[in-house]
Give the backbone structure.
Amino acid sequence: METRNLICIGCPLGCPVTVTMDGDDINVTGNTCPRGADYAKKEVLSPTRIVTSSIRVKDGAIARVSVKTKSDIPKSKIFEVMKEIQAVQVDAPVALGQVLIKDCAGTGVEIIATKTVERV
Amino acid sequence: MSGLQYDVTIIGGGVTGAAVARELSRYQLKTCVVERAEDVCSGTSKANSAIIHAGYDAAQGSIKAKMNVEGNRIMGELSKDLDFAFRRNGSLVLCFSEDDRPALNALYERGVANGVPDLKIISGDEVRAMEPNVTDEVVAALFAPTGGIVCPFGLTIALAENACDNGVEFYFLTEVTNIARIDGGYKLSIKGKEDITTRFVVNAAGVYADVFHNMVCEDKITIIPRKGDYCLLDQEAGKHVDKTIFQLPGKYGKGVLVSPTIHGNLLIGPTATDIEDKEGTYTTAGELAEVTQKSARGVKNIPYRQVITSFSGLRAHESHDEFIIGESAEGFYDAAGIESPGLSSAPAIGVYLAEMIADKAQAKKKENFIATRKGIPHVSAMSREERAALIKERPDYGTIVCRCENVSEGEIVDSIRRTLGARSLDGIKRRVRQGMGRCQAGFCTPRTMEILSREAGIPMEEICKNQPGSEMITGEA
Amino acid sequence: MRQHDIVIIGGGPAGLSAAAAARKAGVQDILILERDGVLGGILNQCIHNGFGLHTFKEELTGPEYASRYIDMVEEEKIPYKLNTIVVDVNKNREVTYINKEEGLVTIQAGAVILAMGCRERPRGALNTPGYRPAGIYSAGTAQRLMNIEGYCVGKEVVILGSGDIGLIMARRMTLEGAKVKVVAELMPYSGGLKRNIVQCLDDYGIPLKLSHTIINIEGKERLTGITLAEVDANRNPIPGTEEHYSCDALLLSVGLIPENELSKGAGVSMNRITSGPNVDDCLETEVEGIYACGNVLHVHDLVDFVSQEAALAGENAAAYVKEGQNRKKSHKVALAAENGVRYTVPQVLNVDTMKDTVTVRFRVADVYKERYIAVYYDDKLISRKKKKVLAPGEMEQVVLKKSSFEGYPEIKQIKICTEVE
């Protein structure tokens, strides 16, 4: 049986959570909401993260548009995702929510713009 | 002329070099200034007490005394002609015990003998009536009404710009590596660039003056970098005292002072530590603590929590405690060992050496010498009407970039476009005060970098804080 | 002189939320003055997520959160001016601003809402010894350069300060290919959210050294390295614990200071602990008709609470403008922050005229485990709530009900404090 103490990152509260794993049997205690239990299970089995970064914009009012992975991606793929994001340049205008990369680093997850950048 | 490039080459673009350049530019002499850094005012001239001393401190009859008193005398008019900030706030030298009275009196006598006007010895109570924050320990003080505070960057840059307007050429990032005597003058070897040949040389090289003097002269001198650490406090503390408050001098210089600055901050310091490294402009914890400790002796309730920055400057101390000014070898003029009262003396040194050189060269005065210079308008200090009119003409004066010091984009643009325009962030800072406020350039840095990049055509990756090697960013993300 | 009912200084999250609330409360004539070229304030460069869980029940990035409020302002057609900096506010609520198009202008405000946010504490204020090379940045400046302009400030990074900005930048720089060698924190606890320790430091194996500070900075033109040392209980460096790190960038996340130059100019009384104005339950300062909210009032951790607070300021400013001098406030009672509670906002409650509930926000002075937050009316204990963990980096709140004051007509003081068992 394995026990791990985690801090849940589901929201800014950061509840300390304890996960015990006995083969396939996983038990979570210490969470103050259901998302905490979900997070803890996921974190020990297949940890994921949302990645936020910025993409170069051509002819925009600012040089970079902030972006994020539309949903969480496997933690192990963070740097691969980053590499792909860094290689891209988009043309202004960019709309908030616009998909800038369809399937990033084979994760099946989109990279979307999190702000609007006007064209100059 | 014998085919030499210049009549006079001045080594060093600090306040002394700039003052000599400005005075020489009155004459029909082809003059240039060679400066190692990317801008004028990059050495000691940018890191000092910013005091225009009254002149009681230098030894009686010394060149220091003579230059100090004369420099002080002409500073008022010069500040109007060349448009830099200067104010005679008056100085106080605090005496802490009756046992030290003789020393205080001696200082007074010396001042009188040196020609310092209006000196007075006042009682401890009179001091405290003038300056309520002076401590109770003080029993008496020397009061010198002619003491003043100046913007050292403003003074140096004004002198340099005026020299430039009058034909003096300035070379930056130009380091002299050797001086050799040639027929009719000297040949200066320059690192990575072509030689400069010149009839006369003026050595105004600050802490490096010994290096150049010793290349040419038989007798050798030694300049010891005397490091002084300072703390600068927020403008909220700027009225804590009004006069420049000294402590009766000890073995090493004038002791720790507490003074308002011309821009409304409070300055405390300096320490005096002799070091070997001529590039050693680092502060140390011990010296910063010393500044705090010593300042409290004379002035109480200093709000140390309001420190916004600290810095270190190197004074060029020559072992005989005296300026070395004059022709030290045929056609080679020293302005060496210019430590305190260097800033105060610079204009007088400029006049003295320029006259000496012009006399030797039998040079005639220029007919069209431009005697005045207008600085960059400080928009936030203007009246509402003036400001409105300025913004109408130049909208970029209506965009504030530095929030702490209220500096507009227009002023920053001016600082880059004008004579001897800034090419680095520190250069802009010294010309218009951007980045000198309480957030210490935290807010305005990205915008200022963009403006400099745009105006001077410098790619962002090459924008430097000062010299090449001080690039602000490492590249695109 | 032009007149506006409500003038809001700052178009960041506080200003935007105040504007939306004031409009909702029925005031038409509102003007937002913003110094940047866009609305949104600091959120524009906070491209990470964690915003909006309370307000929108979604986890948004900073720019997304800002856009929700900017959309409200645009939809409601609330007027705003960009690239416009306010240079003066006086106690008569005359507001002077400056911009390219109009030059210097003074307008008369019915009410002013201060929403100027805060600035970062610089290296200079720490008096860290050493050289003054290029490569030293406050974390927010580095964040702006990276996220808006797209520039990297260094390749080998040391971060001083474990507040959220420092932690977020540790991750950001790592993702952009820099090596973040260490995050040093003066205090024995981190100033940031626990979740950020996990997803910004632990995820990337970046060490956090608590009770450490920087005692020397090397490099004349450009930073080449720093020296860390452990500190004792008095936060003085312990000799012999020095460690050298080579680096070309030092990011400082050593404190945020509310930007109150304008407030002081208006004669607003300032609180020594928060560095923000003293306010009452209406979030009105001691100068009539001048309100404050957001980071300029006290530094927040969560933008959701900024929005809540600012909405209240907007509502109250609207009420003031509509009711004018007839508006009553009575039975002013001071709040005292004691025994582990560093400050409260508001500092004063008008017991008779307060709304049904007032949210009192506060911070504690140290990390406390298994303590109670207690509320006293004079000497009478009113409520006690046990908290597993209280930390200075996490703002707390208690809600006071108007009805609870009914039994205390002579109340002189409300005390908020922590208590051990």
